[in-house]
Amino acid sequence: VAMIATDVDGVITQFNHAAEIMLGYSADEMIGRETPAVFHDANEIVARSAEMKKEGHPVEPGFDVFVDAARRGEMDQREWIYVRKDGSRIPVLLTVTALQTKQKEIYGFLGCAANISERKRAMEIIRQTNADLARSNEELAQFAYVASHDLQAPLRRITSYLDLLVEELGDQVSDKAADYIQRIIKGSHRMRALIDDLLLYSRIESSDQKVSVCKCGRAVQHAIEDLSDFIRESDATITVDNLPQIHAEPRQLKQLFVNLIGNAIKYRGDQPPRVHVSATSKSTHWVFAVEDNGIGIPEESRERVFGIFKRLHLDDQYSGNGIGLAICKRIVDRINGRIWVEESASGGCKFCFEVPKKATNRHD
User: Fold this and answer.
1) Domain that includes residue 78, residue range
2) Phi, psi of 285, rounded to the nearest 5 degrees
3) Are 315 and 193 in contact (CB under 8 A)?
4) What is the per-residue pLDDT across 268-312, written as a single tens digit (0 to 9) for each?
């Protein structure tokens, strides 16, 4: 750290070795000279003087710009540009404090400057990376929207023409041909569902709705309403504890519960599905659980189920496209939470997700 001490008038009295290395001047060259004119950017000093006037501390551009706060008993720390002897410029974090006698009389000032060039470069890399990532996400969302629109239209035409074909041919369609047609129709429906889920997955980060306070109990009830036919057909029982409010995007929160409850019903065993939704309060987080009595997930596969297109079962065993849990993870990630799965008390699955009690969404 470069340490430069001055008297009360700004004349340099000490100039340590680190300051020599940082600025390219020797101590002999600097002691006895006035700061800040020697190694500061004059325009920066004028700009800071104007800021201080707006803040209610008017000072003329010069030494007082640096020491006014220290004169008032405060420590001043801010970024400045140092101009080296060779004319090159470096950003520094400068801390200025007053030097006082035992009687609290100010006899000088001490400036400690740290070179923050590396930090600045790292911050610029992070800024650029974030900008590139945001642009990539936007491009992905736009691509997914266009692709889904362009793919949905021909799929709708395929199913429409197949329906017309069946109607036109009537009894002339053989059992074998009818089977082929039904397979094509089912495949088209699966493709449409896949496109819809891919679109949903790609647009989670760029949702046009803001994170707000959401009642989780209401979100679960809406999810149950969406799944009502599936619940009735599978003879499932859904029980729900009293649930708290959290900061989330309303539509995405409902989708999270739709996917988790729907998943619990789909991967059922021989017994009718039993699904329980609960929440536990921790010091800074809520931990939610969606617990079932289904077939469970082997321990070695529990991490990879949240990857996109990751499936543990063949399509003829359990239908699906391997995106549902990836959507869940992305929704939870968006509100700075985490999601995992463990074994339930009955040997099924217990999907848990943890979210902060306070709003910490990075997209707000």
Assistant:
1) 2-115
2) -135, 160
3) no
4) 888 899 999 999 999 999 999 999 998 888 888 788 888 877 666
Q: Which two tokens stand for residue 347?
A: 């040997």
Task: Give the three-state DSSP class for 123.
Answer: helix
Q: How far apart are CA 357 and CA 346, in angstroms?
A: 29
E strand or H helix that includes residue 98:
strand 89-100
Q: Examine the domain organization and report whether 227 and 282 are in the same domain.
A: yes
What is the rounded distance in angstroms from the CA atom of residue 184 to the CA atom of residue 173? 15
Sign of CA dihedral 318, 320, 326, 332: negative
Mean pLDDT of 218-234: 94
Structure tokens at 316: 């003829």
Q: Which of 324, 299, 296 is nearest to 310 (CA)?
A: 324
Long-range contacts of 63-68 (CB under 8 A, 24+ apart): 63/6, 63/9, 63/10, 63/34, 63/35, 63/36, 65/36, 66/35, 66/36, 66/94, 66/96, 66/109, 66/111, 67/10, 67/96, 67/98, 67/109
| Claim to verify: residue 356 and residue 307 sit in the same structural domain | yes
d(CA 220, CA 226): 10
Based on the structure, what is the number of domains in the chain?
A: 3
216 lies in the same domain as 302: yes
CA neighbor of 310 nearest in space, from 190, 349, 301: 301
Cis ω for the linkage preceding 244 (within 30 of 0): no
Rg (CA), the chain: 33
266 membership: H or E segment, kind and range: helix 250-266
**51 and 103 co-located in one domain:** yes
Q: Residues of 68-104 as b/e, b for ≥16 C-beta within 10 angstroms?
A: bbbeeeeebeeebebbeeeeeebbbebbbbbbeeeee
DSSP 204-221: STT-SSPPEEEEHHHHHH
27 token code pair: 């101590």
DSSP E strand stretches across 104-189? 106-115
| pLDDT tens-digit series, residues 126-152 | 999 988 887 877 777 777 677 666 777
- Whether the pTM exceeds 0.85: the reply is no
